[in-house]
Amino acid sequence: MSTAALVGWSGNGDLDDLHRTVASKLALRRQAVGRSGRSLIVENDDPVAVARRLAYLPGVDWIAVGYAFEGRDALTARLRFLAGRYLREGSAFRLDAQVERSSQEEGDVLLDGNGSILKAVKGTRVDERRPDVTFRIVMTADRGVAGVQLKKGPGGVPTSRKAKVFCLVSGGYHSAVAAWMAVLSGYSVTLVHARTDDESLRQAARLYAELSRRADAGSISLEVLEGDGSPGGRVAAWLEGKKGATLVGVHPECRGLEVVKKFRAYPLVSLPLLLLQEDEVRSKLDRLGLRRKDLDARADLSLTAKGPAYVVKTYGGKESDINGVLDGILR
Question: Are 171 and 320 found together in one domain?
């Protein structure tokens, strides 16, 4: 049986961008990555390795691995094989099907598929809300791939070559969060770090390496600001040559006065990350000469606090707990 990985699109941004990024991430020609509806198909001898490489790729909703099929009988055989491998008595499962240009209706495919899985392993049941295992069918005409979902992706927006931003990063946790959320929102990102010491540079380099692992490495770059003077002064001088650039990853508690003065002249500055209590937010924004309504209108990203944890929202509609999306960054 021919093995393959299935990549589900989040529905945000442009599927063409996800197609291009997947091919780039896997070092494949774009033609080697198939496309069916809202999903991509990567035929490979080791689909699990493919899934690992795409686990954090922006724009990916889910990743599954399985087997190619052609015709109804082959589909049934693939589902029964997968059920026998991944289900046991008492397991709950869910089957999702994406069908286009086929003689079979999507509802019929689901009905037949659920029946095949139930017959393959006795004592199992369908549970749409809390399944132990999710099976995926992606087919065009009567050909496609049947697989089992390994994990959910980060969602968000596929990386666009047209949407570029600069992220000011200190090497700390907060700016790392802002940079990841910018990547998750579809931007090609240049990390800008004003070096303070060897440790800050190591942390910025670790962030660069981690983001390059998660996203298309060609969409991530690192610019280090060396020289004399304070870090804020170097950032302010760097800003002089970036009029009209879009900036993200700037949180008020990390700004020097030299930088604050420069920011007031930048209409495209985005302030996505405010890790502050409400009263502190107001005072900081007043100091910057910005009002809340101005911030809400400009920001592509927003962050709200709920209890002890932070919940991050991207403009693509994906919500993620920071503790979930940032495992591996600066730890």
Answer: yes
